Amino acid sequence: MYLFPFGEVKPNARVIIYGAGKVGLDFMRQITRSNYAQLLCMVEKDYQMIQGISDVAVPVVSREGLLQFTDNYDIILIAVLNQKISLEVKQELCGRGIPESKIILPKIVAIEDAFWGKWELTALWDAEERQKAMEGFAREGNGKISYFTYMIAEIRLAKDKNGLLAELFRITDGEECLEYKIIMLRIFLEAGVVNGELTKKFIALVRQIEPLESRYLLLSDIAIFPVHFAECLYREFYLDLRDAYRELMESYNLQVPNKGMRSIKRAEKRAAVLFNWLGGAFNHGDFKKYLIEELAEEKFEVQIFCLDIRLWYTGMCFIEPFDDMSCKVKPSECYASSHKAVLEGTARLQYIHGRTVRQRMQESIDRLFAWNPDVIIDITDEIAPQSYILNQYFPVYYVPMRGFLSAMFFGRILSEGKRAAQYCNKFCPSMAEEQMADCYINITIPCEKERRDREEFQWGEEDFIMVTVGGRLEHELDEMFLASVGKMLRENPDIKWLLIGTEQIALLKNTYIEFLNSGQVRILKYENDLMGIFGICDVYLNPRRSGGGTTHLWAAGRGIPVVADASKWFDTMELLGWDSLCWSTKEQIAKIVKMKNDKQYYQQIKMQTEAFHQKWKKRAVRREFVKSVKEFIGMRDSQ
């Protein structure tokens, strides 16, 4: 069976399915049974034959018959398995005057027929049905949460999600099987029903899991929940996670070799840099390359350790991870020639191997102790629990790459502004203030490749252009934020919005087609010349999300005011000036409208942005990153 693309279609959307072959009929059966969306008709060349199929309860029309629907639909879903043909269909539809924004080429996924529709939400409330559902998942699901797709779709449609969650907590408290409890919570998480209470229950349950591999992998998944769900945080989140990792590491019983080596004195200092995974190119504005070059220039001998943590999920966990950004990639070692070309003369690389999680952890510990660094700089995206052991013998700095300044479990934070770290620590405590190093980290700001012109987007000089950049906008733009921005756009047709990073923003395409059709909103894939694009923009708008720190800096370097929602914190917000931060979408909208209408106010904000950016550049020029590391090493040596 081919799975209906629930994630790409908004609930209650008016849908036309183009294609009534196996894919289209599967889509039709799922959408009509679930009532997830309103199916208007299907389009098929042999439409008369399809009309004779007993369970086809919607009109089936020819290609020419499609035109009778004019604008009385939200999307056309191309249900064609052959990618080349589906692209030809899209071109044909566009040639007939159908807006591209109304056409979806879905990701077509085949699943076992047994996965679909067996397990409606009511199955969770009945003990016998729940048992069947969970046994089916264990036998046929292969850890894939898509087994419960129908159930997840029902939850997304539910009006009283909090009531459903309360009922689920009652069920899980009475359920005996630990794995079933965890799967049930994951079903709700996948449906976007998240709060601190759910996360707390999740951590408490995962702490009980055996084998240890599954426990570790699920804890690593929880560690990056805040990247996707601000709602998952509760006051003790990091403390609970730290305790869970401590228990895990003690259970692994990893061996610590050559403890006495720490007393050896050397003329040169050594630095170890830990990466979760290292692909062929450095991103984050070449921050990684800059960091390594700075250490080398300060006469640190540098070795990079590629732990490939996210690759460890393969075949080890009873339920697939929520965040699989680097689970389906080649190991870092496949890019060894690229690494050598980029880092020749500045650093050596060590690639961690081993068949199991424990073997890899032990190998990473053995190699680090053999290298015996004076400092370890951990850039592993918050999921390297070896830091619990390493921090007992080495100075370990954690460099937050995702903006959560109190996120490290067992080390010290090297943050872009200690004040910001202290602010975060008040809400979700993780460490004492003396563990936070105040240091602005340099990020390479690229040059403009070519001069861009507003005419390429059919925008004029009198328009006020907002820009938002991010690879995760698909799930980070929520309905309330878009509703506020949509209202502002309707009231101010001279405000335009450019979104860069992904074209797969279904929520925007399905809800605000009017803006896409009129050209007031444009969506681009990731743009290689962001500095050139920034040159035609008036303001950088960043919603309440976990990313944007690097492009904040780039925009500020281009002299563009940044209007960011600080209610979900980023480390680089310290660089924008606390007085310029916004704490709600309403405040952001008001500020943008005022900047558009009041040129004097806009220039004032622009000058303020430039001043703070110059301040940041001075701190970077003073190389406070290296100074902070050296002072920390000296402090530890004197203890």
Structural class per helix/strand content? Answer: alpha/beta
Give the strand content: 5-15%
Radius of gyration: 26 Å
How confident is the prediction overall: mean pLDDT? 82
Tally the beta strands: 19
Distance between the termini: 64 Å
Sheet with the most strands, sense and barrel status: 7 strands, parallel
Fraction of residues in helix? 40-55%
Q: What is the overall shape?
A: globular
Order of the strands making up the biggest sheet: 10-9-8-11-12-13-14
* Continuous helix count: 26
Low-pLDDT residue spans = none
What does this structure look like?
By secondary structure, this protein is an alpha/beta fold. Helix content is about 40%, strand content about 15%. The protein has 26 helices and 19 strands. A 7-stranded parallel sheet has the order 10-9-8-11-12-13-14, sandwiched between helices. It has a 5-stranded parallel sheet with strand order 4-3-2-5-6, sandwiched between helices. It has a 5-stranded parallel sheet with strand order 17-16-15-18-19, sandwiched between helices. Strand 13 (about 410-415), helix 17 (about 420-425) and strand 14 form a beta-alpha-beta unit. It is globular and about 85 Å long. The mean pLDDT is about 80.
Kindly summarize this structure in a few lines.
With 639 residues, this protein is an alpha/beta fold. Helices cover 42% and strands 13% of the residues.
